[in-house]
Records
---
Amino acid sequence: MARVLAAARAEVGASVGGRTLIGAMSSGQGSIANNETGLREGYRGSKAALNQFMRSFAVRQPEPPRTLLVMAPGWVRTDPGGSDAPLGVEDTGW
């Protein structure tokens, strides 16, 4: 998240058609409404904060417009994701 904050504050991003693109990798676990287990508080809290930051940044941006992209890749079988995740790395297109 610190990298996202630094990039947004410095207005650094990829140039797409002459416009700035700032992207962030979030998670469905950052949803407050969908928290039904109360587990993984640190991870959930960091993703909720990231989502809120990106939303706040989007609504207060002056001209010229910037593209802000927040995406959630899904639950993927990786070391952090664990073996119970329904998607393998090969399913993600990376």
---
Amino acid sequence: MTSETAPKAGTSRRRVYDGLKQMLTDTDAYPPGTKLSTYTEIRKQYGVASLVPLLDEGLLIVHLGVGTFVSRRHARRPKRRRAPQPPDTP
């Protein structure tokens, strides 16, 4: 995660989690399957003791000895387009 897009360390834990969640779900910067910094590095970078809320929500997956990844099952879904509706006839 880059410092330009990441929440700043020292902010409240809830704001950090919300910022990370938004970054992972609402932007194209971290598509599903993206390998991130290690779990420990992410915790230190954002000043949080645990990333369990993000793991519980399925946003992140940790593969021990391999790395931390953006979950594929929590992928950002493209907005659905609605079919044009015919005009109302009087």
---
Amino acid sequence: MVSNLLSPAETAEILVVCTKTFRIHINAGEIAHVNNNCGTEREHWLVHQSDLQAFVESCTRGKPS
């Protein structure tokens, strides 16, 4: 299950966006994620592959019925 988690850089690459845009989607609550900060001040987000797929599907227009 842990191997299905993607880093922000990996997620941004799959979405073909920059990491800043990825962070905007995270902060807007549009992509489900795990906050893996391990007690540090800086947030470290990880995204499960199925959550990324759900986000992509929610953004897809003209889905076949």
---
Amino acid sequence: MNRTKAEGDQNVRQNALAERFSICLQLVGDEFFRAMTQCYVRERLPRTPMLFEYGDAFATFVSNFEPARELAYLPDVARLEYAVGAAYHAADAAPLPLDFLRALPYERLDYDPLLSDRPLPAHRRRASFLRLRSDKD
């Protein structure tokens, strides 16, 4: 592969990372982000031709990237951004059947803050979660 094409490919991958990890880009600035992603794209080739999947190891890379060591939150932000993108591109799940939802006892329905002006106390949320878990076991 000639040098111009290789540089073009790296630039495309850097741009894909900038779109996928836009919050990280905003947090560290363009110059730092470009330098960091330049190192990443040299080390990691895409595993698929779909660039929206590129960057699956970016958070791990960031956690080991020496110039970003002081930014302890950055790998977690990158993980969150990748997870949001993965959820966006994931296949839609089938909705639960209405009969199933109607059959649930009222006590088992989860709290929705949009439907109430009173917050559900944390101890009730935890008890509800533990009850649901014990029902599955």
